[in-house]
Amino acid sequence: MKVANNLLRPQYLKYKDEYLKKVEEVLDSGWYVLGNEVKAFEEEFATYNNVKYCVGVANGLDALILAFEALNLEEGDEVIAPANTYIASIMGFTRNGLVPKFVEPDEFYNLDISKIEEAIGPKTKAICVVHLYGQIANMEEIMRIAKKHNLYVVEDCAQSHGASLHGKKCGTWGDVGCFSFYPTKNLGGFGDGGAIITNNKDFEEEIRMMRNYGSKKTYYFEKVGFNSRLDELQAGLLRVKLKYLDELTEERRKDAERFIKEINNPKILLPAYQFNREGHVFHLFVIQVEDRDDFMKYCEEREIGLKIHYPQPPHLSDAYRYLGYKENDFPITENQANHIVSLPMYNGMTKEEVDYIIGEMNKY
């Protein structure tokens, strides 16, 4: 049996009629940028997350850049960030001249709260929290630390749409929450897209202006802004999918829980819930193995699709060589990067595919 690491087509086929109807509606409207679909999606996504404001933007990286722009920090100010994240989380604020202060992850792949305060210095002004792989970070403790040190909190929710802690969704704990709607995301569009949510009216107004060339009034410009707008077609399609997000998340949880319960192999370190099942939406199902090359060869022979999220931490990338980090500066992060593997995880996996993966994992 062949099992892909990720497939988008099964989910499209499930809601095909609704998607095509929405495409026709948008095309017939004759309005394709910043129209009624974007406005409706912003309202519906804000309601889903129980926040006052949502601003649609072009992609997840732009969401981060615009969020940090709204904080009005000074060049050279520092931002606490996870060392093991995808590089876009870091690009989201270094684009604004800010400097990362990396912190190692805990066993759940999120910021280790015991290491945050020791990284805070006089120039530290914010914390960038990434809810990696779909599991919400320990936001209660992070917010306690942030308030103690008067720090802004920006949440990178690109992988965690709908994850919650004590009934409060990711993206709503801090000052702003940033989302990506890249097609492979749990709430994915049919192209690029992103959004920012907040309860702060000043931030909302600044971000809304900056996404549109720095303009509040057509052809009049207050600042040097960006061209970062969620288009009507993506917004309309995301509105269709948003209705089913909780249902789709439950499908992922059930498949993930089967993996956790039924894969019984001491060679494979499985993920775990930090809080409860509502806290994890399983954007990815990440395991660790001692000999990754051997494991990947084993799975390739059995046609089980694997990926590595992510093989190179940001501090070791050429992009951030100027920061002066070297190997072994963040040993936990680097060890994870050498051993993590992502098993197949997507909506539309069949019972037979899940059975097959479990069986082959237990034979390894």
UniProtKB/TrEMBL annotation:
Does the entry feature the keyword Phosphoprotein, yes or no? no
Please list the residues that make up the active site: 185
One GO biological process term is:
polysaccharide biosynthetic process
Q: Which Gene3D superfamilies match?
A: Aspartate Aminotransferase, domain 1, Type I PLP-dependent aspartate aminotransferase-like (Major domain)
Family matches, as InterPro entries: DegT/StrS_aminotransferase (IPR000653), PyrdxlP-dep_Trfase (IPR015424), PyrdxlP-dep_Trfase_major (IPR015421), PyrdxlP-dep_Trfase_small (IPR015422)
Task: Point out residues bearing the modification N6-(pyridoxal phosphate)lysine.
Answer: 185
Keywords in alphabetical order, please.
Pyridoxal phosphate
- Specify the domain of life of the species encoding this protein: Bacteria
Q: Which GO terms describe its molecular function?
A: pyridoxal phosphate binding; transaminase activity
Q: CDD domains from the entry?
A: AHBA_syn
The UniProt record lists the keyword Zinc-finger: no
* Similarity section: Belongs to the DegT/DnrJ/EryC1 family.
List, alphabetically, the PANTHER family matched. Answer: 3-OXO-GLUCOSE-6-PHOSPHATE:GLUTAMATE AMINOTRANSFERASE, TRANSAMINASE
- According to UniProt, the name of this protein is dTDP-4-amino-4,6-dideoxygalactose transaminase
**Which organism is this entry from?**
Anaerorhabdus furcosa
